[in-house]
Design a protein that fits this description.
This protein has nine helices and no strands. The chain is mostly helical.
């Protein structure tokens, strides 16, 4: 028996292969819900699971090249949500409209804050764009409801505070200034 055969028959390797097969089957079951991926699989004869894993691996590789990380991160934050927002607008259900509108509010708020602090953050936070991409994916995935969580815990209280402060201060008019 060769060393390669011994390695392939090692209990840890066999267990890892079984686990990988289980996860690949689960991913394939989830990806079957998307007609676009089914169409790509039929046209290319490449299993959709392997295509998705390959694309994600390629994007992860591009993240390692730091000069491309900002482009990849912004592309991930824009491409799929833009497509799904288009689909949500065309669908009769308002539920998906709320989900993607909330995502765009949070994504825009995050990018606005990032524009002020990017040089400082890039200096002090290693792997910033990788963390940003993970955050963006967390915002996007309906399973985690990250955009809704961020909106309800950060943005809504902030905007409510600003709104209540603006109502508490009476507006000054030109006539009120002249009377004094």
């Amino acid at each position: 028996m060769s060393a390669a055969q011994k390695f392939q028959q090692h209990p840890v390797v066999v267990q890892a292969q079984k686990k990988a097969t289980i996860y690949i089957d689960r991913l394939d079951k989830e990806l079957t819900k998307y007609p676009v991926l089914n169409n790509i699989e039929q046209r290319t004869q490449v299993p959709k699971t392997y295509a998705v894993i390959g694309v994600l691996s390629f994007l992860a590789l591009l993240h390692l090249v730091n000069s491309l990380a900002v482009i990849v991160s912004n592309l991930i934050g824009w491409a799929l949500p833009a497509y799904l927002s288009f689909k949500a607008i065309e669908s009769p259900s308002p539920h998906d409209d709320v989900q993607w509108l909330t995502y765009w509010v949070v994504f825009g708020f995050f990018n606005f804050l990032e524009s002020f602090a990017s040089s400082l953050v890039l200096f002090y936070v290693p792997w910033y764009y990788t963390l940003k991409t993970i955050f963006i994916v967390w915002l996007q995935l309906p399973y985690f409801r990250g955009a809704q969580t961020t909106y309800l815990t950060v943005i809504k209280p902030l905007l409510a505070n600003i709104s209540s402060q603006s109502r508490a201060t009476p507006p000054t008019t030109a006539s009120a200034v002249h009377e004094e």
